[in-house]
């Protein structure tokens, strides 16, 4: 596993020659279960233990692959949902713009019940009717503000500003 450089062999030889400060170096490496456990160049343990480790690694790998596939599937579902929501947002924005335009133009704008006047005198009459409706709405809004101000007491400075406008 260590490749062609022989680094595992050199490592063992160096370690055996150094004595490692413990028992006898080379004798320690020759003993089953002795030496540095978990050292990369050695595989300690019985064939059964190695088979169990391999099975655990294979199971972990399979689980990681399953989780990856699950994440990919979930991400694909989220991308589809995002696309659907983007379309819905576009539709709602268009609808909001349309409703806002209608509100700005007034209640008679685009109403099939109130046809557009071709004659200037009819157009003036339509505008007068719209002005009357707006004045009535304004009068009711002022009454509502005054009632709110009376109920709010001393905290009504904001309402006073609106009434002055």
Automatic annotation (TrEMBL):
Annotated stretches, region: Disordered: 1-51, 99-124
Alphabetized UniProt keyword annotations: Coiled coil
Comp. bias intervals (Acidic residues): 111-124
PANTHER family associated with the record: COILED-COIL DOMAIN-CONTAINING PROTEIN 89 (PTHR34768), TUMOR SUPPRESSOR CANDIDATE GENE 1 PROTEIN (PTHR34768:SF3)
Protein name, per record: TUSC1 protein
Organism, as annotated: Bucco capensis (collared puffbird)
Lineage: Eukaryota, Metazoa, Chordata, Craniata, Vertebrata
């Amino acid at each position: 596993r260590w490749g062609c450089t022989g680094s595992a062999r050199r490592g063992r030889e160096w370690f055996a020659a150094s004595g490692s400060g413990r028992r006898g170096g080379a004798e320690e490496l020759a003993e089953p279960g002795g030496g540095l456990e978990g050292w990369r160049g050695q595989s300690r343990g019985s064939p059964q233990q190695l088979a169990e480790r391999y099975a655990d690694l294979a199971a972990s790998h399979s689980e990681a692959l399953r989780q990856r596939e699950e994440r990919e599937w979930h991400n694909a579902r989220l991308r589809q949902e995002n696309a659907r929501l983007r379309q819905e947002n576009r539709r709602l924005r268009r609808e909001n713009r349309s409703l806002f335009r209608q509100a700005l133009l007034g209640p008679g704008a685009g109403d099939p019940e109130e046809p557009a006047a071709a004659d200037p005198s009819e157009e003036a009459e339509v505008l007068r009717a719209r002005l009357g409706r707006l004045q009535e709405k304004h009068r009711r809004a002022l009454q509502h503000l005054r009632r709110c101000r009376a109920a709010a007491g001393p905290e009504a400075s904001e309402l006073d500003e609106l009434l002055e406008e």
